[in-house]
Amino acid sequence: QVQLVESGGGLVQPGGSLRLSCAASGSIFTIYAIGWYRQAPGKQRELVASITSGDRTNYADSVKGRFTISRDNAKNTVYLQMNSPKHEDTADYYCHADVRTTSSRYGNWQDYWGQGTQVTVSS
Q1: Using CA atoms, how far apart are residues 123 and 117, in angstroms rounded to an integer?
Q2: Local confidence band at 105 (pLDDT 50, 70, 90 cut-offs)
Q3: 82 pLDDT above the threshold of 90
Q4: What mean pLDDT comes out for the span 3-26?
Q5: Which of 47, 52, 76, 123 could be disulfide-bonded to 56 (CB atoms 3.0-4.6 Å)?
Q6: Which residues contact 56 (CB under 8 A, 6 or more apart)?
Q7: C-beta neighbour count of 118 within 10 angstroms
Q8: How far apart are CA 31 and CA 122, in angstroms?
Q9: Rounded to an integer, what distance in angstroms lies between the CA atom of residue 79 and that of residue 95?
Q10: CA angle 77, 78, 80 (to 5 degrees)
Q11: pLDDT digits (tens, 9 = 90+) for 60-81
Q12: What SS3 string covers the chain?
């Protein structure tokens, strides 16, 4: 019913910049929070950043001041601007959204995940 498609991953040098995008489509009535998680090899998936429909943002301490999350509600798209990435930012990045679908406009929020995009920070 709802698809999240990430793009923009790849190889970036330490201190460089990279922008991830995630476009949500399908039977969307409204999106509350949308954001990014990441999972490095051998580690648990962790929140990177999220943004609510009211533009309230939440960041992991490890990325504060370096990463910026933003959203375009008209396009149901969220962006993650990654500035000054570090080696430890290397991971698979997953888009996540809390969605109410058109078939459940006033029901519970449902979790949706994208397929993930790989980010490698290396010189």
Answers
A1: 19
A2: confident
A3: yes
A4: 97
A5: 52
A6: none
A7: 12
A8: 34
A9: 10
A10: 150
A11: 999 999 999 999 999 999 999 9
A12: CEEEEEECCEEECCCCEEEEEEEEEECEEEEEEEEEEEECCCCCCEEEEEECCCCCEEECCCCCCCEEEEEEHHHCEEEEEEECCCHHHCEEEEEEEEEEECCCCCCCCEEEECCCEEEEECC
Residue 18: other Cβ atoms inside 10 A:
21
Q: Which residue has the tokens 């990435």?
A: 85
Q: What would the two tokens of residue 51 be?
A: 């943004």
The amino acid sitting at 54 is G
Query: What's the one-letter identity of residue 107?
Result: G
